[in-house]
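Progress against Task 2.4 (sequence-to-structure conversion) is shown through the following example record, which the project officer requested during the mid-term review.
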Amino acid sequence: MLTIDRDVQFLTEQTLVQGVEAYQADGGIIIVMDPRDGAILAMASTPGYDPNRYEDYTAKERINPAVSSMYEPGSVFKILTMACALESGVVTPNSVYNDEGIIEVGGREIYNWDRRAYGQQTMTQLLVRSLNVGAAMLSTTLGPSRFYACLEGFGIGTPTGIDLQGEATGLLKEPGDSDWAESDLGTNSFGQGVGVTPLQMITAASAIANHGLLVRPHVIYQQIDGSDVFTAQPQYLGRPISESTARTVTDMMIDVIQYGADQALVPGYTVAGKTGTAEIPSPAGYIDEETITSLIAFLPSSDPQVIVLVRLDRPRTSRWGTQTAAPLFSQFAQRLVVLLEIPPDNVRQSIAASIGG
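Structure tokens generated for the chain above:
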């Protein structure tokens, strides 16, 4: 028996096909997971293949890209950088830095996505405005040892161990590796030059939703052999951040959705999330005007019951995650909460008050 919810899977596939068409993308991926125990409720990707004509497709066409294909995640990765910086104590939520619109790391100049300078910025404003310069400031302040050790704690560069075949390892270059450069310390902070699978990225983000605990994702709920029944139990992979840090980053992610990506809002629910717009690398450098847009979000933020990753490959209506992945998530989540019977914030608060009374 699988953790896959048939109704949620159908909605996920339907939404993804509609989203790829609406935003004129080459393809996309949506994953829905319970961050509390790692159960995969739905996983869809397009284009896919017809298993009735298995031999008509190449091995590459038959893989599950949500598990087996790496990509550079872009700005969704900043939530991990921020979590690492807060956990290490190099900044506090109230820390302020002067954003000059450029920072040099290892001889490479790093700019904000809009080439603007923002002056005095708080840590929350850094995430809301998705400032590359601020993210690079955090990683360089942490230094290579603490930064990469923390990312490893989130499972970056390591298979999650999901009970599916063909999982890719991911790519996390570190000091001492022949292909690591000092400039990577800056660019990795905002998800460039690091490779993840969609499954790795949602699993890492789920640790923030799950009070700092990293849990292994799985699709097998139960195995039944005659009278023998084995029910899967949550497998915790570690605690990359404290519960306090997880709560702080969650609060920041709420502001990101409210003030930086309001097209991802879900009426009646407080959503915590982060969008990403990742340039696509090629042997000749990054491809102009082509991006992978994404959003990772969970709700309800006070007691996360579901976390969702939405990814669109090369959307043509807009190159930005705020204008593609964010509204697609909102459309999807408004139906998802009904299927999963997740009550809105005011109902949950009323129930909690009643129980407390």
